[in-house]
């Protein structure tokens, strides 16, 4: 089998397992495969499990533009389910695997409805995100975009995020400002962008522009980032439901900003890539 298609709240990924496909996915093939019109189409590729010398499971995450993502919330939840579905782990007790953005833990409570991921610690440090300029916590910074001054807060969940709290948010706004913030010179590795509206102390709403993927219906690491920023700004409690166009995720965090994310995963299909698609990479 070349791929297994899953989604988390409409954020869809192809798991490509080196044990089951002859492909070694790279940036070039990821771009061709993820193309919605000329390829199989997806918001990214989860290439794994990759085993190190100690047998620790690793995962490489590719964006549809071919770039590597250090971490993904929906991607790691999906991968956790895949590991259970294909018998790599029983899922009876919590397990861990490695991403380029650090170790994550998975607790498969119900593989369709409720997978809880320990996503690691949120950091507001500019050097970790990374962002240019002196080393600092990136909270309530001014950012000029398209002639307007935005107030943003930035956070690393292993991957970079820039959160823009606003009274009103929309998918149009995400399409308009998202790409400009993603590629702003402040962010040498580009950034994911979240437009955040606080609904009450336990509910927030976000619109997402993902680095290397564009507008998506949901993002797990974005949910963790937006909730962390809202907590840091004192706007919400440490347990919150994040509302996105694709559905909701539950986020909670401790005093040190160690963040958990809980949500569903859906299995859609599995299949093979055509010989003539392979000829394109
Ligand atoms: N959809 C993901 C985020 C995927 C990675 C992101 N595009 C990046 O480049 O960091 C999620 O659910 O977190």
From TrEMBL:
It is found in: Cytoplasm. Substrate binds at residues 11, 63, 73-74, 159, 192, 210-211, 220-221. Pathway: Amino-acid biosynthesis; L-lysine biosynthesis via DAP pathway; DL-2,6-diaminopimelate from LL-2,6-diaminopimelate: step 1/1. Keywords: Amino-acid biosynthesis, Cytoplasm, Isomerase, Lysine biosynthesis. The keyword Cytoplasm applies. It holds the Pfam family DAP_epimerase. It comes from the Bacteria. GO terms for molecular function: diaminopimelate epimerase activity. SUPFAM superfamilies: Diaminopimelate epimerase-like (SSF54506). InterPro entries: DAP_epimerase_DapF. It catalyses: (2S,6S)-2,6-diaminopimelate = meso-2,6-diaminopimelate. Its EC number is 5.1.1.7. The record marks 161, 210 as: Could be important to modulate the pK values of the two catalytic cysteine residues. Catalyzes the stereoinversion of LL-2,6-diaminopimelate (L,L-DAP) to meso-diaminopimelate (meso-DAP), a precursor of L-lysine and an essential component of the bacterial peptidoglycan. Homodimer. Belongs to the diaminopimelate epimerase family. This is Diaminopimelate epimerase.
